[in-house]
């Protein structure tokens, strides 16, 4: 299986080289445009983009598990919230510097993912999803019940940032750089033999087992990787909001990155990124008009998905192809 994955990896790289180079240049242009947002847009618009960047990493990490591993989890918010709460709790109880909490956050989230994954992956499909949802609600309840430790349903407010992140421009650029690094690493993991093996398990679990693959170990590794980057996104949320609260942990928060991925296109690597930006903009726009914004955003997303089942990234690809044919 390892040899097969290696051959497939080499052939994939050989075929996709021109496409990969074009995607690389396009990604660089997008990064430079995003880097210039604080200098070209108002503070309000910069904060919206900043929120979308955090959401994009959360959606990418979740979609890695759903798309590449074929594991639909409704518990990824546990790791997202763990990343945020790690920074908040270390500051509240030990007055630990932000840097210590930020470095530890994704690793603590990965450890939690290891424990939850080891228990949940004993089940399959619907029952796996149900178990992850149960863990999400468990952590949500614990964050409310232990008021003396977590500040209950009010959460931990006013988490201080170091001086170099208190400027809106510097905090934005920090989120952009860290989020981009996380995106690149996830993209690289998908192209490794591990990523190919993971997709082989998704496509044919029985055949993979027959070829000697330890399916449980590979899927558990994918679950931990996803948890790590969800935790990193949660840590970046603290840079954006300086607030950790229980709603970050519940199953509804776990559904948001899946919704973003569907909106942008789960079949494309950039789909969750596109979906995160569309969802965040819709949320901000509709939220200013009505307090019932989840209903209206849900209807808009539903209508869009019915019109474009492949998501926004697929729709943009079709528009580009039509444009090229006309040219």
Automatic annotation (TrEMBL):
Transmembrane segments annotated in the record for this chain: 22-41, 47-65, 77-94, 100-119, 126-149, 169-189, 210-238, 258-281, 293-311
UniProt keyword list: Cell membrane, Membrane, Transmembrane, Transmembrane helix
Subcellular location per the Swiss-Prot or TrEMBL entry: Cell membrane
Pfam families in the record: BPD_transp_2
InterPro entries according to UniProt: ABC_transp_permease, LivM-like
GO CC terms: plasma membrane
Membrane topology: Multi-pass membrane protein
Gene Ontology MF annotations: branched-chain amino acid transmembrane transporter activity
Protein name (Swiss-Prot/TrEMBL): Branched-chain amino acid ABC transporter permease
Organism (species): Kyrpidia spormannii
């Amino acid at each position: 299986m390892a040899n097969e994955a290696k051959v497939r990896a080499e052939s994939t790289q050989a075929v996709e080289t021109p496409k990969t180079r074009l995607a690389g240049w396009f990604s660089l242009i997008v990064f430079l445009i995003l880097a210039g947002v604080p200098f070209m847009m108002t503070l309000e618009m910069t904060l919206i983009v900043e929120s979308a960047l955090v959401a994009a990493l959360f959606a990418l990490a979740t979609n890695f598990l759903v798309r590449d591993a074929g594991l639909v989890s409704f518990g990824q918010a546990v790791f997202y919230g763990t990343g945020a709460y790690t920074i908040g709790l270390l500051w509240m109880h030990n007055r630990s510097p932000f840097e210590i909490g930020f470095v530890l956050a994704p690793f603590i989230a990965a450890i939690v993912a290891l424990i939850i994954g080891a228990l949940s992956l004993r089940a399959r499909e619907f029952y796996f999803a149900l178990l992850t949802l149960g863990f999400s609600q468990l952590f949500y309840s614990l964050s409310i019940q232990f008021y003396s430790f977590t500040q209950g349903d009010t959460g931990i407010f006013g988490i201080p940032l170091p001086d170099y992140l208190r400027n809106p421009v510097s905090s934005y650029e920090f989120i952009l750089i860290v989020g981009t690094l996380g995106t690149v690493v996830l993209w690289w993991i998908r192209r490794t033999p591990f990523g190919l093996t993971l997709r082989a398990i998704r496509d044919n679990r029985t055949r993979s087992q027959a070829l000697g693959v330890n399916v449980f170990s590979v899927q558990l590794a994918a679950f931990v990787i996803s948890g790590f980057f969800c935790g990193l996104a949660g840590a970046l949320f603290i840079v954006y909001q300086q607030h950790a609260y229980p709603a970050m942990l519940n199953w509804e928060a776990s559904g948001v990155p899946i919704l973003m991925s569907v909106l942008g296109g789960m079949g494309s690597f950039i789909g969750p990124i596109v979906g995160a930006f569309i969802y965040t903009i819709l949320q901000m726009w509709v939220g200013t008009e009505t307090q019932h914004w989840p209903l209206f955003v849900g209807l808009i997303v539903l209508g869009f998905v019915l019109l474009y089942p492949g998501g926004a990234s697929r729709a943009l690809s079709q528009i580009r192809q039509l444009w090229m044919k006309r040219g």
